[in-house]
Amino acid sequence: MVVQRVRGWDRLVARCRTLPLDEALGAGAAPDASAALSLRARALIGYPMRRQLAADLRSLVAMAWDPSPARHGWGPACRLRLRPATEPLLALAGDLDADRPVNARGVALVRLLLADGAGPVYGLAGEPIDTLLGAIAEARNALRPRGLPEARRGTTDRR
After folding, report:
1. Angle at 89 between CA 135 and CA 18, to 5 degrees
2. Is 30 among the domain residues?
3. To 5 degrees, how large is the angle CA 114–CA 118–CA 123?
């Protein structure tokens, strides 16, 4: 782990370049590779971000089952596409809400999954549902911290 001084510029970059930083973290970049990545990783693993993403996933599921698509502007094809992924999406939301540490890569993957309008959630590229289920499984797996002793996995400090 490299200790570096965080400057105002680093904070600005971490706030303004969230998508490229999330893409880098999602691809496996080490959070301590730069001050901006470190700051972004810290924001991603914080409970406010995790709660918001969990709520977004639950809203997505609710929209998929809503009988009146006019309320949210989604066509029936998009809604029907998400229905088989209901359980995995809700499990992912539960993982984010859980009172245990998570890996920034996993949270970044969830953000990218929700933000990519041409990605597997929205199905605009015509990819099979397995693509979405695979992306959800990858995010769930990436949420699990590596190298954390089993006894500590269920505890966190919620400051």
Report:
1. 60
2. yes
3. 90
Give pLDDT tens digits for 69-128: 665 555 555 777 889 999 999 999 999 999 999 999 999 999 999 988 778 888 766 778
Q: Give the span between the Cα atoms of 97 and 75, in whole angstroms.
A: 29
Structure tokens at 28: 């496996």
Q: Are 64 and 121 in contact (CB under 8 A)?
A: no
The residue segments making up the domain with residue 19 are 1-45
Q: What is the pTM of this model?
A: 0.82
Asked if residue 106 lies in contact with residue 144, where contact means CB atoms within 8 angstroms, the answer is: yes
User: Residues 6 or more apart from 82 whose CB is under 8 A from it?
Assistant: 60, 61, 63, 64, 89, 121, 132
Task: Evaluate whether 61 touches 89 at the Cβ level (below 8 Å).
Answer: yes
Same domain, 77 and 142: yes
Cα separations (Å) of 67 from 59, 73, 86? 14, 12, 15
Q: Which of 145, 29, 135 is nearest to 98 (CA)?
A: 145
Query: Two tokens at 79?
Result: 């809604």
Do 50 and 102 meet the contact criterion of CB atoms below 8 Å apart?
A: yes
